[in-house]
Amino acid sequence: QVQLVESGGGLVQAGGSLRLSCQASGSIFSINTMAWYRQAPGYQRELVAHIASGGSTNYPDSVKGRFTISRDSAKNTVYLQMNSLKPEDTAVYYCNAVITQVMGVVSDYWGQGTQVTVSS
Q1: pLDDT at 52 over 90
Q2: 106-115, Cβ contacts within 8 angstroms, sequence gap of 24 or more
């Protein structure tokens, strides 16, 4: 089995910063892509940042220049550095990873979510 455990959410004032972490553990052979999504009340889950196994990254315009995704392959961990936070960034943030297990099965995994609240 594989688990993704997130940490780092919380309450911050507008203009502040937070850093989210997500560590994968279990019967992992390799991690392909990792990403962060968010979901605000009444809205669909949306992609916030994506990082491929080779390190290339992708962001939507809404967070480009403010958020940075990175990964530590040795620790099976992905990070999301969020700067210049805005009230509209308030949401539950979810970690996502496409993982090849030791048995060769490729599956999509999600973390439990961490709340980020930005006050104005």
Answers
A1: yes
A2: 106/32, 107/2, 109/2, 109/3, 109/4, 109/24, 110/4, 111/4, 111/5, 111/6, 111/22, 112/4, 112/5, 112/6, 113/6, 113/39, 114/6, 114/7, 114/8, 114/9, 114/20, 115/9, 115/10
